[in-house]
Amino acid sequence: MDAELHELTAGYALDALEPEEREAFERHLDECESCREELIAFWEVSGALALAADGPAPSPELRDRILADARAEKQNVVPLHSRRRLAPALGTLTAIAAAVAIGLGIYSLSLNNKLDDTRSALAAQEHAASVLADPAANTVTLAAGTGRLVVAGDGDVVLVLDDLAAAPSGKTYQAWVVEGTTPVSAGVFTSSDGTAIVPIPQAVPDGAVVAVTVEDAGGATTPTLPPVAASQPV
Amino acid sequence: MICASLTVLALADPPVTWSMRKHLAHLSDEALVALVARGDEGALAELYDRVGRVAYGLAFRVLRDDRLAEDAVQEAFLGVWRTAAGFRAERAKASTWILTLVHRRAVDLVRREERRRADPLDDDTRDAATSESAEDAAWLGFERERVRSALRQLPDAQREAIEVAYYGGYSQSELAERLGVPLGTIKSRMFAGLARLRELLDDGSEEGSWTPNSTS
User: pLDDT tens digit string along A191-208?
Assistant: First the structure.
């Protein structure tokens, strides 16, 4: 392990790194299990420091604004009143939120993808995070299964599945984009800790559906029905 | 099974009622995040009620401005709302995750705003914290004293590096310049200080709520 990078764990947990260093450390995290473990422990320490900060109480309106934001987002309506000053910062923040969420857990996803080229797996994760963080993204509910389909403003799509058990031995999950009655494979994936975050590599046309089936390891050329998850039409 | 899941989703939609809130009160923070991942606004409200007070206190300590502090908290909770599905309860406490988002946002804002006001060690906000319930006050008071007592046990240079960085939003490079010491020294102080703080806090915590502890 690179001792200098390892030492950055503390600076990272305290948000005290310069932007370039922060990025370099995040790349290192993807390859260093001991730094990940240490970061999680250090985050608990910075969480304790947060408790000791002891500032004043927020105004009651803050709670209302947060809930109004959430409600509006659910309906894909931008609440202009509360975003007047936030707009430029919003994309950055949600990217951070996604990055931290990834820092806290999505690593197990990359560990399950050891057969993949590490860099392409990482690029896929970063891509998925940017889609999930897109303030202009729309969410499509699932007709079967638990989760959602997130469609970014630029048309990139990520499927998020919750409560998805690991595929049986010798089997894999496979995603499909189904336009009309024609399924096109969107690749195979695994479930990690009950969740799968699946970037869809191709365009999903209007009215098409994204579905998931269980197939033999390596994937299939036509889907085996019934699907374990399927979205509403995009 | 799919039908049951869809029922849960459907039930999450109606406006929050008192009986639902009472139900949520029994859930762990981590279970609430799982509900937030499914779009449950009541769960988000409950999380805010548990963590919002500390989150705002932290943001205010860093930013020293009520509007900016509210922005940081609001944006962080919006981040929670959007990315809850990526959270892994076995890896960290939900409150830690939320406070991490709030702090990161507050630091980004303080650097952007160039709000490098007073000395971050000058904790002049302490007396302002009065509007909390008795139980909250007791628990927070206990935790604060525990953390402060651990901080006091650090060598001065380590404590200074941690406090100025965390509460002031200063980067390691800025700290090195401000204190006139080499960057490598600041990095080492921060690492040694945080590692020691972790041990001290670990020793004092009986609940076993401490997450992954890699002593090897």
Answer: 776 778 888 888 898 888
SS3 content of chain A, % helix, strand, coil (to 5): 45, 25, 35
Neighbours of A54 (CB within 10 A): 22
Cα–Cα–Cα angle for B131, B135, B137, rounded to 5 degrees:
45
What tokens were used for A97? 């939120």
Which letter does DSSP use for residue B16 in this model?
Answer: P
d(CA A68, CA A59): 15
Q: Which residue has tokens 């939320």?
A: B98
Tokens in use for B102?
Answer: 């709030």
Task: Give the pTM.
Answer: 0.61
With vertex at residue B3, the alpha carbon angle to CA A148 and CA A71, rounded to the nearest 5 degrees, is 40
Interface of B with A in 114-153 (CB under 8 A): 123, 125-126, 128-132, 140, 143-144, 146-148, 150-151
In this prediction, residue A99 carries a pLDDT of 55
Q: What is the predicted ipTM?
A: 0.79
**Would you call A105 and B44 a contact, using CB atoms and an 8 Å cutoff?**
no
Q: Which residue has the tokens 């939609």?
A: B13
Is the separation of the CB atoms in A49 and B162 below 8 Å? yes
